[in-house]
Design brief:
Chain A: InterPro entries: Fe-S_cluster_assembly_SufBD, SUF_FeS_clus_asmbl_SufBD_core, SUF_FeS_clus_asmbl_SufBD_sf. The complex is a heterodimer of chains A (411) and B (256). Chain A is α/β, with parallel strands linked by helices. Chain A contains 7 helices and 20 strands. The chains are: A alpha/beta (411), B alpha/beta (256).
């Protein structure tokens, strides 16, 4: 593990404070309320369990005009990356810079996100991250930034921390692809000024053996928009946390995820832990999480909407659903609402089910072979989550990946 | 075309016997209608013919063009030319009607060793067929049957029939839940598909559908078998007098 004070050139006080936070709370255990369903032992261990890199798959978003930033096992690869210059955007690296705008901001959103639920791995990340990007957006970014996480070494244990600040009215699409390492700890802080618009699309995997604990901390000012979609294929253990704080009025935050796991490929455990706070007027939030599980795969969802006093006219929505393709798989969900304002609309739901036999018969009676029909019904199940992706081309690419996965995982 | 011989069917998980020696022959190019009181086994027959799970055939056979249907998977039956228009068409959110139609059509063509239609060819065909059924572009784009009215759902069934061009069409209470205008539209769609090489089996409770889709033969079904067969006048007789007389003649009483 990197020393807190030598990991990068800057943010020494912030890193020190994070190390102290971590020291005070300690690493998580199964007795912690939010770790009851996910065993953190392999994440806590000093060394990662070895994980082979998965077979290289067709590159993602290849047809898209984007700025590529490549990390191999957490190490920046200048040769494979594009030049870090983009109109409307300042991009530097955490390992080599500490720009003024980031002073006092690095680690701040993470620290805020430690209340009321402790997130020790995020504090560890802030203290020990070896690299990451510091991105400041002042206008509409000319093109998306694509962080590409390559996994090569069987024992890599990268810790990356990205800090992203969108100034008033700025706009950015951030793409993240790849498994990153045998064990990946990632934190991303996203600070959105008034009217800023941030779109995030992430595809984790496809490695079977990788482990990951990731965190998104977002803070929204007036009329800011935050939209995040994550697609996960496999991985022995994935914990994706999101902490979204809607401070301004008229803000909008959508966090969505689709996870597909087949335990027969190896173990599969996928955990989404989401916390959305409404602290402004007329905020709209949506959490849409869908999981398709088979072969003993396990999916968990812990999601909360907190509406603070005075956050009137809040419109909060949360749905978590699983489609179990066999009897061996398992879905655990803990949907929570905590509301301290009286003029709000909040709803949440959680369901678990199998493929609808009537729909399956309907499709087959039209000549669609059984496995193809099941595939269509899986896509049908995931549709609400995928529809959270606004960009049609990106959506198409995600659907194509889903279809590939389904083709590889026929019963 | 369709030949059902001495068909006995029970529910898979219960001892309940539903079809008790059903015999029925539908000749090529003909329209047959089946009427009967509730619980007579009409819908079960349509499900068993199209291969739905949950039923056990204990005796008998059902062949389409000489081929045994009961040995085939539902999709194989479809490719062989069987089509069931559902009484309650199923909603499939997130799957576009067009995607569904194209997947089904090309799967059937592939199964028959025919060339699959290109996107362009398919689009041209579907637009042409949709127009005659007054199905607009919006309905084609929407997810399968989601948010469709009762009439739209049934028209969508007929559109599928028009696209898939089956040899043997079974319409399971296609008139249920339709107003007079919607029924006429559906009936017109069916009539447009009548052809010398295509047969129909129309399951209905009411004579009025048969005013629009004129049958060649009418069967009365009860207690899991065909009790009586006649011409269109048989439907009128049932409409006027009910089933009591026919049931009594076979030693049956009306369902409670």
């Amino acid at each position: 593990m990197a020393d807190a004070l030598t990991a990068g050139p800057g943010f020494v006080p912030e890193r020190k404070a994070a190390a102290e936070r971590l020291g005070a709370m300690g690493l998580p255990g199964r007795r912690d309320e939010y770790w009851r369903w996910t065993d953190p032992a392999t994440l806590n261990a000093p060394d990662p369990k070895p994980a082979q890199a998965g077979e290289a798959e067709a590159p993602l978003f290849d047809a898209l005009d984007r700025l590529k930033v490549v990390f191999v096992d957490g190490v920046f690869d200048a040769g494979a990356s594009d030049d870090l210059s983009l109109a409307g955007v300042e991009i530097t690296r955490l390992a080599t810079s500490a720009p003024g705008w980031a002073e006092g901001l690095y680690g701040t959103l993470e620290a805020t996100g430690q209340v009321p639920v402790k997130r020790p791995f995020a504090a560890l990340n802030t203290a020990q991250a070896t690299d990451g990007l510091l991105i400041r957006v002042t206008a509409a970014a000319a093109k998306p930034i694509n962080l590409i996480y390559v996994h090569k070494s069987e024992t890599s244990d990268p810790i990356l921390h990205h800090l992203i600040r969108l100034e008033e009215g700025a706009e950015l699409t951030l793409l993240e692809t790849g498994p990153a390492g045998a064990r990946f700890n990632k934190a991303m802080e996203v600070d959105l000024a008034k009217g800023a618009r941030f779109h995030h699309i992430r595809i984790q995997g496809p490695d079977q053996e990788r482990r990951a604990v990731t965190h998104i901390f977002a803070r929204l000012a007036d009329a800011a928009l935050f939209k995040s979609f994550t697609l996960t294929f496999n991985g022995v253990l994935t914990r994706n946390e999101a902490f979204v704080e809607m401070l301004g009025d008229d803000a909008m935050a959508h966090v969505a995820g689709a996870a597909l796991g087949d335990g027969r490929d190896g173990a599969f455990h996928h955990d989404d832990t989401v916390f959305v706070t409404h602290d402004g007027l007329r905020g709209e939030s949506r959490q849409v999480f869908k999981k398709v599980l088979k072969g003993g795969a396990i999916g968990t969802f812990q999601g909360k909407i907190l509406v603070k006093p005075g956050a009137q006219k809040t419109d909060g929505y949360q749905i978590s659903q699983s489609l179990l393709l066999d009897d061996d798989s398992q879905f655990l969900a803990k949907p929570e609402l905590e509301i301290y304002a009286d003029d709000v609309k909040c709803s949440h739901g959680s369901t678990t089910g199998a493929i609808d036999e009537t729909a399956l018969f309907y499709l087959r009676s039209r000549g669609v072979p059984e496995e193809d029909a099941k595939g269509l019904l899986v896509l049908s199940f995931l549709a609400d989550a995928i529809d959270e992706i606004e960009d049609a081309a990106l959506k198409e690419e995600i659907v194509a990946r889903l279809e590939d996965w389904l083709a590889r995982h026929r019963s | 075309m369709l030949e059902i011989k001495n068909l006995h069917v029970k529910l898979q998980d219960e001892d309940k016997v539903i079809l008790k020696g059903m015999n029925l022959t539908v000749e090529t190019g003909k329209v047959h209608a089946i009427m009967g009181p509730n619980g007579s086994g009409k819908s079960t027959m349509s499900y068993v013919l199209s291969g739905r799970d949950g039923y056990e055939v204990t005796e008998g056979s059902a062949t389409l063009g000489g081929k045994e249907l009961l040995d085939m998977e539902p999709e194989e039956r479809a490719a062989a030319g069987l089509f069931l228009a559902f009484q309650y068409p199923v909603e499939i959110p997130g799957v576009g009607n067009m995607t569904f139609l194209r997947t089904a059509l090309n799967a059937q063509r592939k199964a028959r060793g025919e060339e699959e239609l290109s996107a362009g060819e398919f689009l041209k065909l579907v637009r042409e067929k949709a127009k005659t059924l007054k199905i607009d572009a919006d309905m084609l784009k929407r997810p399968v049957n989601v948010g469709f009215s009762g009439g739209e759902k049934k028209r969508n069934e007929i559109l599928q029939m028009a696209m898939l061009e089956p040899k043997m069409c079974i319409l399971d209470e296609t008139d249920s839940g339709l107003d007079v205008d919607a029924m006429r539209l559906v009936a017109d769609g069916v009539n447009a598909l009548r052809a010398p090489d295509r047969s129909f089996l129309v399951i209905t409770h009411y004579q009025r559908l048969l005013d629009h889709i004129k049958p060649d033969v009418v069967h009365i079904m009860a207690d899991g078998r065909i009790l009586q067969t006649g011409g269109p006048e048989l439907a009128l007789e049932v409409e006027n007098n009910g089933y009591a007389e026919i049931l009594a003649a076979h030693g049956l009483t009306e369902a409670k």
